[in-house]
Amino acid sequence: MIKFNIAQWRAWAPGLMSVEEWRQWSHEPVIPAPTDAAPDVSFLPAMQRRRLSRLARMAFSVGWPLAEGLERLPLVFVSRHGETPRTFDILSDLANDEPLSPTQFSLSVHNAVIGLWSILRGETSEMTALACAGDGLEHGVVEAASLLEEGAPAVLLVITEEQPPAAYAPWIDDVPFPYALGLLLTPGDEWQLSLTTRERVETNSDRSQWPHALNLLRALSTQQSALQHPWKNRLWNWQHNR
Amino acid sequence: MSDLHQDIKQLIIDALGLEDISTHDIGNDQTLFGEGLGLDSVDALELGLAIQKRYGIKIDADAKDTRNHFTSVDSLAAFVSARQVA
């Protein structure tokens, strides 16, 4: 079992950004209308933000305010599917015998976002990019907790998923809409996370209704104190102690 | 300004995602890389690719004078004109 505090959080999805908007969504969660809209990252100079995809903009928009005023802040970046629109563009060019865009290629790798974060913030602390199964949130928390255990005063955890291109629809069924959640984790015992193992479950029928990061967001917005997140043979138990 | 100059400026803006800049903001003899417009090495690769696609010409990345061709819009226009005739 690991213990930690969630000092602050930020989240973004189409039409959802403020605490109040997320509170309303948490009480009556629905899938926002599809849009190409990306969050505002005008805090970055134009020459620096021009290459950022929506995935990168989502990560920056939730992470940047949480990192405000903190120096040497380790970052754990979690995305199961990553830059699927860039990957799809590159594969399409390959299929058509077209030359590949150097920009698309260099920014399609999974650690591109943390690389940009490091460059744009001048941050040289530990940074990790994880691609896990549907319980990437929990694996990210475990990674962040180990950094806290090593003595980091705070760790930034960003979980984000981009809406995959339609061609991926038969294989990717766990991204109802693009979203990003940023958590500023600090040492403490307000939250407990434990893992129990169960019989391997092959069906998807007992998944949580929303991706784990959004489910946690609902709990944070509605003062819910316990959460269970099943994924395959793993059952994650969240407990908020007050 | 020739049509080719105008065309190359628009290509630079589109290929490199310079959303806040218009063709009037780029001078014909303005330095494109480093100082001046402030483009970087990834932009150089991306622009090289865009020019090859747009004008159907080959650029040898290792040739000594390639760097000179990418100095400004003027030099790019001269390079493209020469290659298209050749």
Describe what this molecule looks like in 3D.
The complex is a heterodimer of chains A (242) and B (86). By secondary structure, chain A is an alpha/beta fold. Chain A has one domain: Peroxisomal Thiolase, Chain A, domain 1. Helices cover 33% and strands 24% of the residues of chain A. In chain A, a hairpin with a 2-residue loop joins strand 6 and strand 7. Chain A is globular and about 55 Å long. With 86 residues, chain B is mainly alpha-helical. Chain B has one domain: Non-ribosomal Peptide Synthetase Peptidyl Carrier Protein, Chain A (Orthogonal Bundle). The radius of gyration of chain B is 12 Å and the shape is globular. Chain B starts with a helix and ends with a helix. The mean pLDDT of chain B is 92.
The profile of the biggest β sheet of chain A is: 7 strands, mixed
The CATH homologous superfamily of chain A is termed Thiolase/Chalcone synthase
Global Rg of chain B: 12 Å
The total count of strands of chain B amounts to 0
Assess the beta-strand content of chain B as a share of residues: under 5%
Q: Identify the CATH homologous superfamily of chain B.
A: ACP-like
Distance, first to last CA of chain A: 17 Å
**Number of separate strands of chain A:** 7
Low-confidence stretches of chain B: none
Element order of chain B: H for helix, E for strand: HHHH
Helix content of chain A: 25-40%
Structural class of chain A: alpha/beta
- Mean pLDDT of chain A, nearest integer? 95
CATH architectural group of chain A: 3-Layer(aba) Sandwich
Features:
heterodimer, A: 242 residues, alpha/beta, 8 helices, 33% helix, B: 86 residues, mainly alpha, Non-ribosomal Peptide Synthetase Peptidyl Carrier Protein, Chain A, 0% strand
